[in-house]
Design brief:
Number of strands: 5
Shape: elongated
Strand content: 15-25%
Helix content: 25-40%
Largest sheet: 3 strands, antiparallel
Distance between the termini: 62 Å
Strand order of the largest sheet: 2-1-5
Length: 83
């Protein structure tokens, strides 16, 4: 990736993979916080998916806030009835 200019800002790096000329496919390996990217050879094809960043609509935000308020009210009511 360094020779080609690196990753784009919207690249989904941990799901990248390489298809070698013989048809073998190697994916990015990860263990804890360490990532190991596959080696690139001549004739290889590199695939790096794009991250999907979807913003919540106003209706979704209102729905989530309403649900959280209802759960908080239920918890408060349960705490007050057990005293």
């Amino acid at each position: 990736a360094r020779e080609s200019g690196g990753f784009a800002t919207n690249a989904y790096r941990k799901n990248s993979y390489v298809v070698y000329p013989n048809g073998e496919v190697r994916t990015t390996k990860h263990f804890l916080f360490i990532r190991s990217y596959p080696n690139i050879t001549a004739g290889s094809e590199v695939y790096i998916p794009v991250k999907d960043k979807k913003k919540l609509s106003t209706g979704e935000i209102i729905g989530i806030a309403g649900s959280l308020t209802s759960v908080a009210a239920l918890i408060i009511a349960l705490i007050n009835t057990t005293k």
